[in-house]
Design a protein that fits this description.
The complex is a heterodimer of chains A (110) and B (110).
Chain A lengths: L4 E3 L2 E5 L4 E6 L6 E7 L5 E8 L4 E4 L2 E6 L4 E6 L8 E9 L3 E4 L3 E6 L1
Chain B lengths: L2 E5 L2 E4 L5 E8 L5 E7 L5 E9 L2 E4 L6 E6 L2 E6 L8 E8 L4 E3 L3 E5 L1
Parallel strand pairs in B: 2-11
Antiparallel strand pairs in B: 1-3, 3-8, 4-5, 4-9, 5-6, 7-8, 9-10, 9-11
The chains are: A mainly beta (110), B mainly beta (110).
Chain lengths: 110, 110
C-alpha cells in the first residue's frame, strides 16, 4: 500500500496537555501534509512539510519529518477541547494523487 | 476566491438505485479533481482523479464511475448502488499549491 500509517489510532488527553501523532510512509515523497477532520465533516489542511525540511511550525502545531525513517510527527501543544478531531497525514504521489493514512482520533477532555 | 461545492450533504438511496453526486469548483481553472470515500472510522480511499476534461483515472475496481464533462465539474455515478457503497464521499481539488476538500456527502444505501 502507498498509504501512510498513523499511530496511535486513538489518543485521549486532558486539556492543556500536548498531543503527539505519528505517521509513517513507504515510498519517497516530495512533501507530506497533515489534515484535520471534525466528525462527519470535510478535511481542513493544517500544514505541509517538504522533503528537504525537517521541522515546521504553525501556531500550536509543530511538524517534524525524518525522510531517513520515512516518518513524520504532528505535535499539538497546550491542547484544547476544540482540538478534538481526527488527524490524517497524506503524501502526494505521481499524478498529484494525495494518499491518506488511516488517521488518529484525538479526544481532548476539558 | 476559490471554493468547492459538493452536494447533497446527505443521501439515502435504496439498493439498486442509481447515484449521481456532483462537485463543482469556482475561482480556478484546470484543477486536478478527486473523489474520495471514507468508511466509518477509517481513512480516506482515493476512488478517482482527473487532470482534465474527459480524463478519468480509477484507483480501485468498484461499482462506481466518474466523469468530468466540464473543467470545473466532477461527477460520481453508479447505475446500481450496493449496500457496500455506503460511506462518506469527499470531492477535492488542487492547483498544485494545496488541496481543498468539499464538505462531503454522506451516502446511506438501504
Amino acid at each position: 500500500s502507498q498509504q501512510g500509517e498513523e499511530d496511535p489510532q486513538a489518543l485521549s488527553i486532558q486539556e492543556g496537555e500536548n498531543a503527539t501523532m505519528n505517521c509513517s510512509y513507504k515510498t519517497s515523497i516530495n512533501n507530506l501534509q497533515w489534515y484535520r477532520q471534525n466528525s462527519g465533516r470535510g478535511l481542513v489542511h493544517l500544514i505541509l512539510i517538504r522533503s528537504n525540511e525537517r521541522e515546521k511550525h504553525s501556531g500550536r502545531l509543530r511538524v517534524t519529518l525524518d525522510t531517513s525513517k520515512k516518518s513524520s510527527s504532528l505535535l499539538i501543544t497546550a491542547s484544547r477541547a476544540a482540538d478534538t478531531a481526527s488527524y490524517f497525514c497524506a503524501t502526494v504521489f505521481q499524478g498529484g494523487k494525495l494518499i491518506f493514512g488511516q488517521g488518529t482520533e484525538l479526544s481532548v477532555k476539558p | 476566491s476559490q471554493t468547492i461545492h459538493q452536494w447533497p450533504a446527505t443521501l439515502v438511496q435504496p439498493v439498486g438505485s442509481p447515484l449521481s453526486l456532483e462537485c463543482t469548483v469556482e475561482g480556478t481553472s484546470n484543477p486536478n479533481l478527486y473523489w474520495y470515500r471514507q468508511a466509518a472510522g477509517r481513512g480516506l480511499q482515493l476512488l478517482f482523479y482527473s487532470v482534465g476534461i474527459g480524463q478519468i483515472s480509477s484507483e480501485v475496481p468498484q461499482n462506481l464511475s466518474a466523469s468530468r464533462p466540464q473543467d470545473r465539474q466532477f461527477i460520481l455515478s453508479s447505475k446500481k448502488l450496493l449496500l457496500s457503497d455506503s460511506g462518506f464521499y469527499l470531492c477535492a481539488w488542487t492547483n498544485h499549491y494545496g488541496y481543498t476538500f468539499g464538505s462531503g456527502t454522506r451516502l446511506t444505501v438501504v
